[in-house]
Amino acid sequence: MPTVKEVTSLAGELHEECGVFGIWGHMEAALKAYWGTFSLQHRGQESAGIAVLDRGEITVHKGMGLVTEALKVEIEVLRPGHAALGHVRYSTSGESSLVNAQPLLMRTRFGPLALAHNGNLVNAPQLREELAASGSIFQGTSDSEVLAHLLAKSTEAHLIDALVESLPKLKGGFAFAVLSPEGLFAARDPHGIRPLVLGRAPSGGIVIASETCAFDTTQTEWLRDVEPGELIAISDQGTIFKSFVGENEKPKRALCSFEAVYFARPDSQIDGQSTHLSRRQLGRRLALEAPAEADVVVGVPDSSLPAAMGYAQAANLPFDFGLVKNRYIARTFITPTQTERESSVQLKLSAVREVVAGKRVVLVDDSLVRGTTSRRLVLLLRQAGAKEVHMRIASPPYRDPCHYGIDTSRAGELAARTMTLEALRVSVGADSLAYLSIEGLEAGLGSQGWCMACFGAGYPVPLPVSAVEEETPDVQTSHIS
Question: One of 18, 213, 256, 451 is an active-site residue; which one?
Answer without folding.
Answer: 18
